[in-house]
Amino acid sequence: MYEQIKVNSVLIEVTNTCNMRCTHCYNSLDREKTSGASFMSLSQIENIIKKCILYNLNKLYISGGEPLCHPEIENIIKMCGNYPDIFFTITTNGLLLTNRIINEIEKHENICVQISVDGLTKDSYEAQRGLHTHEKFNTALNALLQSKIKYLTARTCVTKLNYKEVPHIYEYLLSNKITPSFLFVNQTGNAAKNWDKLSLSMANKL
Fold first, then answer.
1. Closest Cα to residue 70, out of 129, 7, 3, 17?
2. End-to-end distance of the chain based on CA atoms, in angstroms?
3. Potential cystine with 189: which of 26, 54, 131, 168 (Cβ 3.0-4.6 Å)?
4. pTM above 0.85?
5. Mean pLDDT per 10-residue run, the chain (206 residues)?
6. Which residues lie across from 153 on neighbouring strands?
């Protein structure tokens, strides 16, 4: 079976907890309340990595929730560094980044950071991410730009609230050597509850 199937990438949701309650999130605000906070153990994560290697895995995403909420995130990063043939991407909103976490990532050339960039202006960012978050986001983004992390990427969830800013986001990211990526908002989780103010018309998308 392992010889016949090739897996290019896998996403591991290491926790269901998050430090934000974004209007456009594909997860639900009630998620933690209904199921409780949960965290994968280091042994569970490593077991998944070892199984994926059998499928010639070459990309693995560490996600959540917010993966930086995991109490052992630094040990998870160290463990990722033990598998140099796999390219790991930590997907984060960035607000919980610390110098310790950044310094640990800098030690490993096979680890990328993907930060969510849903707006560069205060209004567009906080419309989706919540009040009093833009300044923390800017601090995190600047810390990444000043770091020695080899690979930085960004993901923008495009909604009615920020679609006009997409060209500016694109140019800003490229000018700072951050690889941009964009996706349209999906009608799931919190986004489904806020669909009227988030959904894009075909004209908006074009």
1. 17
2. 42
3. 26
4. yes
5. 73 94 83 74 96 87 96 98 96 97 97 97 95 96 97 98 97 97 95 96 94
6. 114, 179
Burial, 3: exposed, middle or buried (Cβ in 10 Å; 0-12, 13-18, 19+)?
Answer: exposed
| Predicted pLDDT of residue 35 | 66
Number of neighbours of residue 53 by Cβ within 10 angstroms? 16
Nearest-angstrom CA–CA distance, 124 and 139? 17
Q: Where are the alpha helices (DSSP H) in the chain?
A: 31-35, 42-53, 73-81, 99-106, 122-129, 134-146, 166-175, 189-193, 195-198, 202-205
User: Taking CA 73 as the corner, what is the angle to CA 70 and CA 74, rounded to the nearest 5 degrees?
Assistant: 155
What is the identity of the amino acid at 107? K
26: left (phi over 0), alpha (psi -120 to 50) or beta: alpha
CB atoms within 10 A of CB 17: 17
Q: Which two tokens stand for residue 17?
A: 């907890």
